[in-house]
Each structure stands twice: as structure tokens, then as C-alpha cells.
Amino acid sequence: SFGLPFDPRPLHSASPHQQTGESAYSGAHFEINRKAMRITISGRGKAERVQRLTKKDGGDELKDVFFYSFKDMRMKQDHQDYPLWVCPNRRIYLESYSPVAQQAKDFLIAIANPVTRPRHIHEYKITSYSLYAASSLGLRFEDILSGLNRLSKNELHDSLINFIHDKTEKAGKVRIVLRRNSYFVESPNKKMLEELLKIEGVADARKPGETEFLVHSDDQRKVAIQGTKDGGMGQMEAMGLKGDMKEDEEENEGSNKPKLDRRVYSFEIMQGKVEQVKEAAKDRDFPTLEEYDYQNDKTTPNLNMNLRAFAQIRPYQERCLAKMFGFGRARSGIIVLPCGAGKTLVGITAAQTIGKSTLVVATTDVAVNQWKKQFEHWTTINDNGEKRVIMFSREHKRAWDTSKAVIVIASYHMLGHGGQREKEAEKIMQLIRKHEWGLIILDEVHVAAAKTFRRCVSETYSRCKLGLTATLVREDKMVDDLHYLVGPKLYEANWLDLQDQGYIACVQCIEVKCRMDPLFYKEYLMQKSMRRRQLLYEMNPSKFNVCEYLIRYHEARGDKILVFSDNRFTLETYARTLLNKFFIHGDTSHTERLVTLDRFQRDDKLNTLFISKIGDNSIDLPDVNVIIQISSHFAARRQEAQRLGRILRPKPVSSSRFNAFFYTLVSSDTTEVKYATKRQRFLVDQGYAYRIVRDEDLIGTDPKKHGLQLSTPAKKASILAKIRAADEMAALEEEEEVGLDRTKQTRRRKGGGKRWGSFGRNVRRRAGNASDMSGGSGMAYRPNNAPRFFRDHIMRNARN
User: Fold this and answer.
1) Residue 231 Cα to chain centre, angstroms
2) pTM of the shown model
3) What pLDDT digit, counting tens, does each position of 312-338 carry?
4) In what helix (H) or strand (E) does residue 718 lie, and over which residues does it extend?
5) How far apart are the first and last CA of the chain?
6) Distance, CA of 470 to CA of 461 (rounded, Å)
7) Is residue 631 within 8 Å of residue 564, measured between CB atoms?
8) Ramachandran assignment for 178, one of left (phi > 0), alpha (psi -120 to 50 degrees), beta (any other)
9) d(C-alpha 254, C-alpha 302), whole Å
């Protein structure tokens, strides 16, 4: 539970500095040495492996968990009246049942990262990045200490105070601003800029010939957000510090103290080295901020757009926008909201507030089309007859008047493509590169951390960046790069709070343990290929019977059902061969997908749709309330949360507590059990609980009673024969980044070429066998005049 590869039971003392124990899951014996900061782990049937953790590569984390003593914590006399336990190891525990819990949550989200948030006790951790985000919101060292002292049950430890002071000393003091197509590094502290220029990566990026700092005043105004009451809440109120900043200003005005110095010093840097400056400054503990003084921008054309009267901003959306537009400027950063909680409306409101040209980057062509519809639905952008919402996709390549403000919506694949483009597409890309954008909205911003898509951020000139996502999680640990690519995390909502308030659906998560059929399990144990083993536990007849039973049950209730499978062979076998249902995967044409999705949403007779991982993101199906997951991408936590998000749209009130259902079908006694446990970690940390049931609890021990298709040995044997006959590539998952626009899986011959026509021909490369090309996959030569035992021997070898 603390990020180690095992879940240790209570440790038994072996010596004053040594402890031992045994893993509750894997049976691995481990030994922890306090002085050497070393963990020795030995697993059953495996060679002993020793993991040495020093202070440099994780020793501090290990010390925080196992060896920290809390005996020196001094409790306040009235500690029962406060909601927070503030520990010296920078971990904070919140009693969510406290009367002041909501104020404490708003404050903690501003200064710490949530670790886990179940129903009653929440855990947060103060990190360097969380303090950087707090400083970017205008919180000073004194503000953070004041908030913690006011809410904590105990006195703050000196080590925690020193850590906060060291991390906030430089954070939030340096900003990168884009003015008139030029980037400037600015700060109210002249000495800090001089120290920053001593860094090699920053000094090299400074514009040649400049030796003096530029000086200008920094005026701040209040921002009114449309769709909110009285222009929206203030930034300090959104962080649970209502009135603190106002009191400080009044105290300053009423005293004889000199007025605050509003002078700002800056120097210009070269456009192509912005990311280099951010990374170099971050490595020296100078995290940079991006702010846009859009109210004083007189050079960029204004975008005349208002929210419609029925657009009402919810309280948590108001908090997001209050943090983004604090003190009269637009801050670059990331907003984390659950799927279905209105991230799109937050982005649209941000674009309307800034009122400048906006570039929206989405994951797929379907998402691009949905963003266009949402802009037209919530705003008056096209009411005067001008088409100022422009899509840039495979089918839409329309230029625009660069002298006017517009909204351009494109996909990551269209902007991040590194090869040669068609002439029309290249012209649009030149317009995008030269245009000075007031705001760039990065939908599903976790994608932007990938190396392929970083050029979407670095090759466009934007004054403000807003990242939107429901899952700020990546298995490759590249999420931290988003702090300098986009900005700090501005806000992260609590999923259970939104569920209790009715803003998202109340979902029951159920894991169904499906017994492996003996015939399939024998084959599973004999197989050495991981892909074959994966195909066997995905095609487990017990899993199929449970899937068929759940589909019948929920269709009888009138529910809309999405069935997810990453493996295309499994998807087609379930949908087409056995159940005769509609399905969509990576090779389905764009037009067919849109037609199928529209019919699925509107036709009451079409209540079940099978879909591959292309449906993980950016599909808006508000009526879907049941998801059945039969195949997934190993232990991907983000995929689990994204699929749950397909049913989080608010649903009508049900007679029971739950109005949406999320089923995960897992084959028992296989590696799928391990993957499922890891996948569920993110949702468990958000407070969701998985109910574990067995397949016998649903269909009993005799599937024939329910008339299920794979209830006879003959049909099971036919499916197994089909798996044996399938080629090795059938067990492959669909490509990781295949989108609904299919731009990832195709590549064009370099230079086009006359041989393939004027525009070239889309081709796809993949590994395979020669037998696949000839149509002889799974077949073998058998001479008719050979003895029977010899013919049988040949066929057995072919199947194996």
C-alpha cells in the first residue's frame, strides 16, 4: 500500500535496527535494515534479489513509511476540534467527517497532492511540485503556515516548516510571458533574474545583444466569470483562505508602510528554447510560471463570444476558474476533473473569458467534432453568421483570416505528425505555427507528455495553456514533465464528493471472478507464449457466459451497454461469431463509426455495442450506464479510470443507490488477476470500492439452465480449436495510440510519389508470417496416402 512490490504484514523485531516479515500476497520473505536503508527480498522459486535504497534513489521515501517516529508530535489542547493530522514526514491526514472538512479540502488541494481519498479518512502529501503549484497561485510561505496552523490538531514540526520554506523561496517568483510573438522571462525580484542567468541553459537562450533588464509596472484587476453569481468567487476563497488576502491589503493600506512595489524586471529569450529554459530552471529549483495579462493585450484581435443564458457554472467549476484567473491574469496549468463532470465547459468558459484566438487540441477526430458542437451549443460564437469555429482534421482543411480571432480545433496526431504532409495540410500548419494564440486547450493533457506530441506544445506560440484531464496518471512516470510543458496543477476534484452531490453518476464497481474452464486451463498451463496465454484467459468460456448473462439482464432493464476488449480477435469472436452484436475497432471506417455511435445513442433496439480501446477517450455517450470489461491493457490504471468515465454522466435517480454499473471480468488463477488488482489502484484511491463476486453467484454451476451459448463441451472445443488455429498476431492488442481518426496506425510513403498517385497511399506495417499472406494460417500439409498416425502427428505439431 506504500508503493512497495508487496504488502507487508506487521513486522517482527529481529534486532534494534532490523525487522523481517512476509508478503501477504506473494509469500516473499523480506528483511529491512534501518541503518543501511536496505530491503532484502527473496521470493519462492526465484533467485534472491536485493534492492538497495539510498537517500538519492528512494531512501527518504522508505524512511517516511517505516522508520519515522511520531512520538515528538505535540497535540493541541483542543485537538478534537481540528480536522488535520500534519505529520513531520510531510503526510497529512484529513478527517472528512469534520464540520470544517470542505474548507480543509480546498486548502489541501492547493498545497498538497492527494494520495488516497476513501470515505472517511483522506491522505495527502506535500511535495516540491505541490508547493510549486501553491506558489503559482499566489500563496506565500506565511499563507501556507497560517492555513496549516489553523486546521492542524498538532503543532507543526520544524523539519516540515523548513521544507516548506526552502521549496517556496524561489517557486512562483519567475514567469514566462509571451508578448508580440516574443517570449520574456520576468520577475519582481531583480536579483533572482541575475541568479537565473548564471544557469547555462538559461544564459544560452537569452536573445543576443541584450545586456539590460526591461522594466514595467504590474497592475492587477479582478476578473468576472460569466455563468457565475456576482462574477464568481475569489481565488483565496477557492483555496479555503477566504478574506486572508483582503485583510492583508487593508492592513497595508491603513498603516504607514510604503506601498507595494509593482515593478517587474524581464529579459527576452529565443522562441525555440522556451522548453530548454523551463527544464534548466526547474533543475536548479527555479520552477517557472506562465501567465497572460490578457486584459492589457491591445495587439491581439478580440474574440466576440459570450456564454448562453442557460450556461450555469457549478461550484467546483467556479473554483477551477477562480484559480486560473486569480489577480486579473490567466495562469497556465492543469485542471483535473472526473469524466462527465464538465471539463469541456470549463475550457469553453476559459476561452470566453480570455476572449482571444484559441487552439483546442483533442485526441481524435470524433473529439474534434464534439468540441465544435459544444462551442456552438454553449456560446454565441456563430450567431452572427460567421463560421469562426474551424476544424483541422483529415476531412477538414479550411484556412482562415489571420487578422480575425478564431477558434481552431485539431487532434494531437494532426499537429504532432513529423513526416511530410499534403499541401493543404501544410498550409494550415503554417498558419497555426505563425498565429499568436491567446489560449491553447489541451484535452486529455496526459497525452501531451508523450515525445510524439510534445511538438504540439513547443511549436505553437501561446500566451496561456490549459490542460484538462480526468486521470493525471501515466505508467511511464512522465506526468512530472507536464509541470514545465504546461504548468502546475491548479485544481483536482474529489470524485466521491461530486457523486454525493449528484454531479456525476453513482457507480457500483463489480469484479467477477470467472473460473477457467478445465480444457482451457490445461492449454493455458502448457502454453509458453505469453500472447497465447492471454488469448486463452480472455476467451475463457466462463467469462463469455457471464458476459452473455449480464448483457441479457441489462438489456431487459432497458440499459445501454458498452463491452470493452483490447484484443480485436476476442472482440470479433464475442460480438460477431457468438452474440451477433455491433462492434467498432481500429479498422472500422470513420464514417461507419459515427453512424454506429449515433444509432447506438438514439435507437432503443440497439442497446449493446462492443468496442476496442479506441473508446477509452473522448466518446460522449450520456445514456450509457453499463460497462463490461472483458479484456484490458495489462495493469494500466489510467485506462481503468477512463473506461469508468464513459458512464459517469449524471443519470436519472434510481430506486436503488446505484444508477450505473462497471463490471470487470477476470479469469481466476491466471496473470489477469494480478493485472486487475494493479489497474484498480487509481479508482480505489479515489474512494471507489470493488465488490467481488464469483461467476457461480450469477449463472450458477450449470450454464445450460440460462440457455447460454458456450454451455456445451462441443461449443467450448470449437472455440479452443479456433484459438489453436489462430496465428500469433491474433493475440496482439490494438495499438496503444490508435484513435478514432486512425492517424497513428497508418503511414504514408515518403514523398508521396507518382507510383502511388498524387497524394500517396496509406499503408500499414506489422510483423507476420508468410502463411498469413497466402491464407494458410493455422493449416498444414497432410499427404492423403500417409499412415493415419503420421497424419495426426503432423496436425498436432501444426496446432502447437
Assistant:
1) 30
2) 0.76
3) 999 999 989 988 987 778 888 899 999
4) helix 713-725
5) 41
6) 26
7) yes
8) beta
9) 39
